[in-house]
Amino acid sequence: IKAPWPSVGVDLFQFESLDMCRRLLRGVCLASPSTGAAGMTDNIPLQPVRHKKRHDNKNRNGCCPWSRCCGMGDFRPRTVWLGHPEKREQRYPRNVINNQKYNFFTFLPGVLFNQFKYFFNLYFLLLACSQFVNELRLGALYTYWVPLGFVLIITIAREAVEEIRCYCRDKEVNSQIYSKLSTRGCKLKSFPADMIFLRTSERNGSCFLRTDQLDGETDWKLRLPVACTQRLPTAADLLQIRSYVYAEEPNIDIHNFIGTFTRGNATHSEDGDPPVNESLSIENTLWASTVIASGTVVGVVIYTGKELRSVMNTSNPRHKVGLFDLEVNCLTKILFGALVVVSLVMVALQHFAGRWYLQIFRFLLLFSNIVPISLRVNLDMGKMVFSWMIRRDSKIPGTVVRASTIPEQLGRISYLLTDKTGTLTQNEMVFRRLHLGTVAYGMDSMDEVQSHVFSAYTQPSHDVPASRAPAATKVRKTISSRVHEAVKAIALVHCVTPVYEANGVTDQAEAEQHYEDTCRVYQAASPDEVSLVQWTESVGLTLVGRDHNSMQLRTPSGQILNFTILQIFPFTYESKRMGIIVRDESTGEISFYMKGADVVMAGIVQYNDWLEEECGNMAREGLRVLVVSKKSLTEEQYQDFEARYIQAKLSVHDRSLKVATVIESLEMEMELLCLTGVEDQLQADVRPTLEILRNAGIKVWMLTGDKLETATCTAKNAHLVTRNQDIHIFRSVTTRGEAHLELNAFRRKHDCALVISGDSLEVCLKFYEYEFMELACQCPAVVCCRCAPTQKAQIVRLLQERTGKLTCAVGDGGNDVSMIQEADCGVGVEGKEGKQASLAADFSVTQFKHLGRLLMVHGRNSYKRSAGLSQFVIHRSLCISTMQAVFSSVFYFASVPLYQGFLIIGYSTIYTMFPVFSLVLDKDVKSEVAMLYPELYKDLLKGRPLSFKTFLIWVLISIYQGSIIMYGALLLFESEFVHIVAISFTSLILTELLMVALTIQTWHWLMIVAELLSLACYIASLVFLHEFIDVYFIATLSFLWKVTVITLVSCLPLYILKYLRRRFSPPNYSKLTS
C-alpha cells in the first residue's frame, strides 16, 4: 500500500478511493478473482483446506441471470491470481459503505409506506379520498386534502434532508484518498479492503496492526507476510511470478482465516521449479479498518464491499420507530374506536331510518376531528425543534443529531450499553506505581528511582561487597540495587520493538544507526507493555534496539548493554503470564525474567507476606497490577532446559501440555522483584457521569472486545462497580453442564456485578438464554469482555426482547456499529478510532461526559414536552368534536357540520397552532436542577407523562369544556343561528388560549408572543368571516359578556383544581423549584 515502487506499473498501483479497490479486484492490477476449480482454464489443482456443501450451477449463479453482475448470490470461496486479469470470471461487490435507509427509487415509496403504516395517517388518507364521493362530501375538498398534504410535505422534506446528509457523509468516506503511490511512496492510515499480506519494508519481515476499529482490542497485532513473496527482490516481481491465493468464503469470523498461497507448478512454471504451497492463517491477513503501525506493506485484495469482515459484522440500518410514537398510535386507535361508537350511537338514535349506512359514513366524517390530523405534524415539527436545541447546546459542543425522529427516546432509557476503549477510556496507559514490598514509588517520587538507576551505572562503588561498607550505606545500597534490578527486569521482560522513522531532519537509516530518541516509536502487542518500557526510559534505562535474537538497552551514561534472547514465552489468556530468558553479553549471566497476574504469580514466587495485600490495594485504586520476578540460571541448567524444551516442541501428541510442563519446571521459587501499577486513563468526567446515570435508574453494561483483566480494572477504575459491590467473574464454560453449574453458583449471590467473557456468554445464551438474562438483568452492572461485534448487537436485542425496556448503545469504533444500530438509541463518540460509529449513530457526541446532559436534560425535556404537546392536540380536537356531538344531538341527530370551510381549518392552524406548539419550549425545572437531581429522570421510566390515566383526564376535560361551550352558546343565543357560531367559536378559541396558559410551567417570551399573535390573527380575520359570523353582533356588549361567562365557566374550575393539587399534592419537581 505504501511502497517505493519502481517506474514499471506505478499507475496501476494507484488507489484513489475505495471504489478503486473494486476495479483492482476486477483485474486492473494486482489480482483477479476466480471461483472453483471449474473456472480455472489452466487446470491447476486446488487444495481447499475445508470443504463446504456443494451447490449446483443455478444456486451458484444466484437467483437471477444478473446476479453475477450485481455481485449477489451465495458467498463462495475464490481463487485470486496475481498479475493475470484474464483469468477473472466473476465480478465482486463494489467497495463502498452505505448508511442510507433509501435509495433514489425507494425513497418516495419508502417514506410514504413508513407514514401510512401509522393508523391515523392511513385513516386520514381514506377520509380525504372519501370526499370524491358526492353522497359523503361534507364540505370543500381542501378542508381534508390541505392538512394531509401539509403533513406529508413536512415529513418528506425532513426525510429528504436526512438522506441527503447521510449520502454526503458516505460519499466523503467512499471517495477518501487512501494512498497515492509514487517512487518514494506514502503512508496509509487504514486498509480499504481485506487483503493477504505479501511484502513489507520492515527489516524484521513483519509488521504490527491496530485492530480496535474491528474488534475493540487495543493491542497491536503481529502480522507476517507470505514467505516466498517476501523474499522477492522487488515488489514489481509480484506481477511476474505465476501465483494465486485460495481464500475461504467470506464469513463474520474476524479472528480466523483459512487459505493457501501457491506459486507455480511443475507443468506451468516457466523455470521448471516445483510448486511452492504455503498455508495462510489470520497472521497473514490485513483486514479492512485496521491500521498499520509503521513501514510499508503490499497485499492482494481478496474481499471487498459487503464481503468485508468489518461489513459482515455490522447490521443494515433500520428505520427506528420510537416507543412514544407507538403509544400515540395506540391512543389514536382508541380515539378511532370512540369515533365509531359515537357515529353508531347517532344513527341508532335515528332508529336506523332511511339509508342509515350512508349516515354512518357521514357521521364518521363529521366527527373525524376526534382523531387529530395535526397530531403527527405537530410531533414531527416538535422533534425538529428538540434536535435543533441539542445541536445548539453550548455545554455539549459538537453534538450532532442524525436521526431527528427519536429525540424523546432519550428520556426513557433503562439500559445503557457502552464500549470501553476510546469511549470510557482514552486508551493511554500511564505508569503510576512501583512497589518493592518495603517501599513504594508513586508519580511524585520517580526522581528517587531515577537517581538509584543513575547511581547503579555511574558509581563504581556499587560493586563493593556489603561487608566493607558501613551499616547505613549497606541499607541504602540494598534499596538502590533492588530498584536497579526491578527497572532492569521491566526493561527486559516484554515483547516491545523500537522502530525508527524519519523526522524530516534525520533519515530512517541514520536514526536507526545512532538510536535517535526523537525518531523512536515503540510497538507492542499491548499498550501496557509500551507504557512500562516508556517508564524505564524516563528513569534512565532505554530500550534502543531489538530483533528476534537480541536486545539493546542504553544506560544513563550512554553505555549500550547487549542481551541475547534465548527463549520467549509469550502471554496467553490461559497462562496469564509471559517470560523471557536472556544472556547478558558483558557478564555471560543467564537470567529468567517473568511477569504476570498476581493470581498465577503468587504460586510461582518465593513466599512473602505482602504480595496479596498490596495487589489488592493497587487494584482498588483501579491500577492494572503485574508481578515481576527473576531467576538466575547456570549454563548447565539452561542447556538441560533447552534440550527438554526442544524435545517437547517436537512431540506430536499432547505438544502444548508437554511444553507447558517443561516451562513450569523453571517457574519455581522465583525471586519477587516488584509490583507495577499501570492506569488506563479514563475520559474526562466518566465517573460523575456514570454516577448520574446510576442515580437516574439507568443500568450500565460494558461490552468490550478487550481481555477480562483489563475490562475488570476499567470497571473498578470508572466506578462502574462501586466499592461496596462484589464482582462475580463467570468461569469459562464450554458445555451445557458447566454453564448450569456456574449459573447456579451465580444465582446464590446478591447485589453482585457480573463479569463474563464472550465465549462463556455464547454457551449460556445457547442453552440457558432466559435464565441468564433474568439473572443478568438483576445485576447492578454487567461487564462482557472478548465480545465480537455481532455479540454486542445480540445482547442489545435480547435486552429489548426480555425486558421490554429502552436501550441506548454508546461506542466509538467500527466494531460498535452493529450494537449502535440495534439499540433504540445509538450514540457515537467521535474519537481517536475514527468516525465510523459516529456516522452510523442516531446521535453523535464528542465526549462520553456529554451523555449525562443529553439524557438528563434534553432527553427528559423532549419526552415531557412531546407528551404535553400530544395530549393538548388531542384535547383541542376532542373539544370541537364534543361541540359537534352536542349540536347534532340537539338538532335531531342531523349530520350537519357546525363549522365549515375556513373556520374548521383555521381552528387547528393560525388560531391555535402557535400557542399549542409553543409547549415545546416549556420546562418544569432548569437544566442545572435536572443535572443535580438525576432522580427526576427515574420518574419518566414509568411512562407517566403519557399514560392511559393522563389520557383519560384530558378526555374528561375536553368533554366538559366542549359541552359547557356548546350548551352555553345554545342557552344564550337570541334569534339567529350565526350567533351560536360566533359565541361558541370565539369561546372555543379563548378557552384554548387560556388552557395553554394553564398548562405552561415556565414561561418563555415566545409563548407570550404566540398567545398574542393568535388572538390578533383571530380578531383581524373576523372582518373576512362575514359568511360564518355576524360582524355587527360581535361588536355588541351582549356578545362580550356571553363569551366571557362561557369561557370562565369552562376554565375557572380547572384553574382551581390545579391550584389545589399543587398545594396539597405537589409533584417532585415543584419541591425543587420552590
TrEMBL record:
Annotated active site: 419 (4-aspartylphosphate intermediate)
GO molecular function ontology, one term from the record: ATP binding
TM segment ranges: 326-350, 356-379, 873-893, 899-921, 951-971, 977-998, 1005-1025, 1031-1057
Domain of life: Eukaryota
Keywords for the protein's UniProt record, in alphabetical order: ATP-binding, Golgi apparatus, Lipid transport, Magnesium, Membrane, Metal-binding, Nucleotide-binding, Translocase, Transmembrane, Transmembrane helix, Transport
Membrane topology designation: Multi-pass membrane protein
Coiled coil segments of this chain: none
Example of a GO cellular component annotation carried by this entry: trans-Golgi network
Any one of the GO BP annotations: phospholipid translocation
Cofactor: Mg(2+)
Catalytically driven reaction(s): ATP + H2O + phospholipidSide 1 = ADP + phosphate + phospholipidSide 2
Binding-site positions, ATP: 419-421, 529, 571, 595, 624, 704-706, 786, 792, 815-816
Residues annotated as binding Mg(2+): 419, 421, 812, 816
Location in or out of the cell: Golgi apparatus, trans-Golgi network membrane; Membrane
Ranges for domain P-type ATPase N-terminal: 84-144
Pfam families per record: Hydrolase, PhoLip_ATPase_C, PhoLip_ATPase_N
Domain P-type ATPase C-terminal, first and last residues per copy: 839-1066
Enzyme class: translocase
Assigned protein family: Belongs to the cation transport ATPase (P-type) (TC 3.A.3) family. Type IV subfamily.
PANTHER family, per the entry: PHOSPHOLIPID-TRANSPORTING ATPASE IIA-RELATED, PROBABLE PHOSPHOLIPID-TRANSPORTING ATPASE
Record protein name field: Phospholipid-transporting ATPase
